[in-house]
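Quick note —
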Amino acid sequence: MKVKFFLVYIAAAVAFAAVSLWVFFSRGRSSRAVRTKYRMGGVMLTAWAMLSACSCNGPVQVLCYEPVVTCYDTVAPTDLVTVTALDDSSKVKPADTVKVSIRNHSYTKYICRITATDLQDALIQSVSFEVSPDAATADFEFTLVATDYRGHAGVTVAGITVAEDGSESESVVGTTYLNII
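Predicted structure written out below.
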C-alpha cells in the first residue's frame, strides 16, 4: 500500500514539474497551464496525505503527528509575597511597621530577612513567623529595628520545611525591595 501511494506521489511530482515548466515558458499567461498546475498540486497534496495516513501504525489515526494537548486546568500560583510599610508604600523608617502578606501559602512556617543591598547583603533583621494551615492568606506585621542603614534593602521571604529528623530546610518563595529612609 505504501509503495503504491509513493509511486503515485512520484508520478504527480514529475507531472507537477512538467506543468510548472509549461507555466514558466508561457510566462504565466496561459490560464490552462496555471489551472493544470493547481490541479497537479492538489493531486500531490492528496497523495502525500494518503502516504502519511497509510504509514501510521496502531489504532485508527489520521496522521503520524502527535496530537496537540491543551490543558485548561492550570495550577494556582502559591506563595505570592507582598511586603510593604503600614501605609502600603515601599518606604519605611526604623521603628515603622512592616507588613508581610502571603497569598495561597504552602508552608506553615516562614522566615523574613531584610538585608542591606549596598553593603554586600549585610543582615539588618530576621523575623520568623508561623501561619495557620486553614488561613487563605498569611498576614504578619513586625517593627523594623533601629539601624543606621539608609537606602534600598532586600526583603527575602523563605518557607521552612521541617524534616522527620527535626532538621529544617528553607525555600525562597519571594524577594522584594524596601527603601529605608
